Structures are given as structure tokens and as C-alpha cells.
Amino acid sequence: MPAPLVVTGATGQLGRLVLQSLLKQVPAGQLVAAVRSPEKAQDLAALGIQVRRADYGRPETLLEAFRGAEKVLLISSSELGQRFTQHRAAIDAAKAAGVPFLAYTSLLRADTSPLPVGLEHRQTEDYLKASGLPFALLRNGWYTENYMASIPPALQHGVFLGSAGEGKIASAARADYAEAAAAILLKPDQAGRVYELAGDSAYTLADLAAEVARQAGKPVAYQNLPEAEFMAILTGAGLPEPIARLLAESDTGAAKGGLFDDSRTLSRLIGRPTTPMAASVAAALKG
After folding, report:
1. 176: buried, middle or exposed (CB in 10 Å: 19+, 13-18, 0-12)?
2. Interval 80-89: pLDDT, tens
3. Which CATH class is domain 5-141+173-197?
4. Sheet harboring 135-140: ordered strands across?
5. What is the fold of 146-168+200-261+275-286?
6. What is the pTM of this model?
């Protein structure tokens, strides 16, 4: 049996999709789901995927999770403010385990991004470069799904709120990015590669509101708000403060061009067009 491919955060939304994509080309026994809570990965184990505990707060578990791996996909942590510390532990463990290659899911143009969330990605990229570990960067743009949760209140109130102004957003579906990650794990000679990944076409939030209105047959207008006001509305709606801040700050970053890219690198990598925004809207409206 060849050395396994390890996917961290494997019970997360992106991680599960990466494993689904890999399963189309790789035997389940060659895949490792590295997760903090193995009990939440029983469905993956039932498919024949190896499940290993990988707790960022317990480096010894990371070392064991990565031992013998051919390649590791380090999916960025969702714990804002703790990401770099956690990523650093994973990189140290991968190096100690002798992992030959690591791919990291970063942020679109992380080195120059105006989005504040880019800081921890830049720190991780810099640490990777200094580590001596062979690596590739998957600089993911925005997930279209990030906006889909706003559709029900937009339909209810007839307004789609945001702070992105006229900023163009080249988003893609989470499954598109997952296919790209799987493709990188299966391609040879990827060390040193940097991929700027985004959707084939871009839209403004006004365009998104218009598409929601068109498909739902109800009036929906886009209302642009100052970042602080938008964040206050999100927290008032029950979102945790860190998530509300992330969304509001990211909208402001989008207004500065931080979520736009027209290279079509993602579609070339996955061998098909990226999922159109309208298709994601249709799926969200179907529930």
C-alpha cells in the first residue's frame, strides 16, 4: 500500500469535500482523515478511510497523525486569532514526521490582500517558507456559500446588506476549491507552486441581490453600509462577534479589490468551469 494522503480538518465542510474528490481516484485505505474528534468521523471510517486524532493543542497527536504520510493537506483552521499558532504546530509536526510535501489552503493573494484575515495566512506562509518543508500554496478566493446564508433574510426584508460597495467578487463554490486541493495532492512535482484560485466570473453584491430577486421572483435590493454598521447588524442577528467581524471586514476588503481575480487558474486546475454564482443561488433557494 502506498504511503497515505492526510487531510486535516477532515470533518469540516471543505475537508469532507476534498476526501469525496480523492475517493474518485484513490483507494479509501490510502486516505487519512486527521480530525480533532474521531467520533465525528465515523461516516468516513465506514468508507474505509483511516481516521487519526489530530488536535492542534496536542502536538504529539499531530506527529502521529502525519507519520508515514506521503503528502499532507493542511486546511486552514477556522479558529480566528488562533490560526497561526495552530498552523505552526501542524507544520512543526509534519517536518518532525518527515512528511515529503505539504499543501496549505491560504487566501487569495495573501501576500498583498487588504483583508485583515490575510494576516494569519501570511504568517503561516512565511513560517512554511522558513521551515524548509516542501510545500505548495492554494490561495483560495471567497466561497460563494459565504453569502448564501444571507438569502433568507434578504427575501424577508427585500434588502441584501453588505459593505462591499462596487467591489467585484470572483467567488467559487466550496466544491470547486476542494477539487483543486485533491488535484494538487495527486499531481507530481508541486513543491514551490503558488496557485491563486478564484471563480471564472466576478460579480458585485448588487449583482448578487439582483440574481436572488430574479430567481425568487421577489424584489431584493442591495444596500451598502459602513463596515461598523454592517457588523453591528450581523451580531444583532446572532452571529458570534469574530464571525461578524470577519464578514464585515472581508466585504470592506472586497471593495478594495481583495476578492477579485481573473486568471482562471482554478478552472484550469480542475478541468472544468467553476460553479456560477447563479447555480449556488439556485441551490440555496431549493434549501
Report:
1. buried
2. 889 999 999 9
3. alpha beta
4. 50-53, 31-35, 5-8, 71-74, 102-107, 135-140, 194-197
5. UDP-galactose 4-epimerase; domain 1 (3.90.25)
6. 0.96
